[in-house]
Amino acid sequence: MIKVLFFAQLREQLNCAELTINLAEDTRFTAVSTLEQLRTELALTDDNWQSCLQTGKLLMAVNQTIVDGNQVLKDGDEVAFFPPVTGG
Amino acid sequence: MIKVLFFAQLREQLNCAELTINLAEDTRFTAVSTLEQLRTELALTDDNWQSCLQTGKLLMAVNQTIVDGNQVLKDGDEVAFFPPVTGG
Amino acid sequence: MDEMISVQTQDFDMAAEYQALLANTDGTSNSSDGAVVTFVGLVRDYNQGNHVEGLTLEHYPGMTEKALEDIVVAAQSKWPLGKVRVIHRIGKLALSDQIVFVGVTSKHREAAFEATQFIMDFLKNKAPFWKKEVTNIGERWVEAEDKDVKAQQRWDKA
Amino acid sequence: MDEMISVQTQDFDMAAEYQALLANTDGTSNSSDGAVVTFVGLVRDYNQGNHVEGLTLEHYPGMTEKALEDIVVAAQSKWPLGKVRVIHRIGKLALSDQIVFVGVTSKHREAAFEATQFIMDFLKNKAPFWKKEVTNIGERWVEAEDKDVKAQQRWDKA
Asked: Which Gene Ontology molecular function entries are recorded, alphabetically (chains A, B) (predicted)?
């Protein structure tokens, strides 16, 4: 099982804060091995997910560290998608 | 009359905090027109004044603004000689 | 050891933080560091073209602390620092409220200044906080700014 | 208008100075400046190869205030600043005593950081203060350092 989190305007636009995905058993995701593949698969959900997830500005983190799309996912990972940060 | 002030280690080495000079009447200084000429004349006082005042590192101020030796002196000026500053 | 990083809803007390920076962990006063630099960021009344009335700070719990700690560790490996303190608030904030505190001590002022700036520049680009402003034209998410990206990237060259 | 420059024997209160930086001159809170940077310099226990027990700060009365004001005016013409406050102590100081305070507010953090550093760099080279330290090998006048000259000169290029 992996946990997928969405934050800020992305969370609002998707109307979704958190998803749980079983990479091994959920047929939609059995071919997913990298973070980029997960993003592409999630973007296929519908037009809204497509436009929200396929923007180049989105940041991605695995286990609370920002990584790029080549990161290979493994069971138990916590994945997050979010817009550029604006704290401080 | 001009007032001449000395600060910090220079004041201690000369054992002098303040001098008053009458440029017009004091025969030793009647030829002095610039700050550099005043410094040179004061340095002639003795060997100690010579070695203290002829160091290149000394800063000079006229009327509380740091200036170079070309500054022309006029009656009423406040002149100061001091070592590089070390506040902060 | 003292807390180095805090992510919290409550306000912080600049005076208490400053005093803590001056003290050693055993309570004696830190007399080896001659320089203390602090930065405080506040909610200001005008941003990106509109009047701001307040804001809400969302964050990614857990990752914020981790990201801030990574930034502080990077600063500590770059400069010889004494104490470092970072506080970032979350939740609802009003005009003029304090948002963020960074405080750094060092033997030398150059290190303290640069490390404080470094921490703020990376915080602005790497720590998962997001501001939603209440403005005269309604609520909106603050846009990330190019100048903040550039401010961070200059440290890659340094 | 608030006092901008103070040269004084008595200690200063960092918390009060910070609060004053946040307030407008009419006492309302300053909500247009989003960034506050402060620097405090303290007497440290080791300098130029020796243990320091305390120091005495000599100054050139009148010229110190004038030199500091000139530096602040130069900073204000270089960056869009809100409030600026500079305090420098004189006389006898003990280990860990506060020596100097610089506080700057601005709409943007870059300006506040750079102006605070600029003021300290020029203060170190242009304001007529001299430190005489009491060390483990006796009293001595502190030597001016090349790195302080270089720190100031970098602003000529900027």
From this structure: nucleotide binding
- The answer to whether residues C99 and C42 touch, using CB atoms and an 8 Å cutoff, is yes
Q: Do C18 and D15 touch (CB under 8 A)?
A: yes
- A9-30 pLDDT per residue, tens: 999 999 999 999 998 899 999 9
Burial class of residue A84 in the structure, from the number of CB atoms within 10 Å of its CB (0-12 exposed, 13-18 middle, 19+ buried): middle
A43/chain C closest Cα distance in angstroms: 22
Number of neighbouring beta carbons within 10 Å of residue A7: 22
Q: Which residue among C58, C99, C142 sits closest to A7, beta carbon to beta carbon?
A: C58
Any CB–CB contact under 8 A between D142 and chain C? Answer: no
* ipTM of the complex, rounded to two decimals: 0.94
Q: What is the mean pLDDT of each run of 10 residues along chain C (158 residues)?
A: 87 97 83 95 92 97 97 97 97 97 97 98 98 95 94 88
Please provide the distance, in angstroms rounded to a whole number, between the alpha carbons at the two ends of chain C.
31
Structure tokens at C4: 């180095």
| Torsion sign across C-alpha atoms D29, D31, D33, D36 | positive
Per DSSP, helices labelled H in chain B are 8-14, 35-43, 47-53
**Which chains have 3+ CB pairs within 8 A of D?**
B, C
User: What H or E segment, with its residue span, contains residue C124?
Assistant: helix C109-126
C-alpha to C-alpha distance for A86 and C87, rounded to whole angstroms: 15
Q: Mean pLDDT for chain D?
A: 94
Strand partners, D8: D89
pTM for this predicted structure: 0.95
- Measuring CA to CA, how many Å separate A59 from each of A81, B33, D51? 6, 71, 50
Domain B2-73, classified CATH 3.10.20, yes or no:
yes
How far from chain centre, in Å, is Cα D11?
13
Three-class DSSP category at D45: coil
Q: Residue B58: its chain D contacts at CB < 8 A?
A: none
| Closest chain C residue to the Cα of D94, Cα to Cα | C31
Closest residue by Cα to residue C2 from C11, C16, C15? C16
Q: What is the residue extent of each domain of chain B?
A: 2-73
User: Could you tell me whether strands B78-82 and B2-6 are parallel, antiparallel, or unpaired per DSSP bridges?
Assistant: parallel
Touching subunits of A (3+ CB pairs, under 8 Å) are C
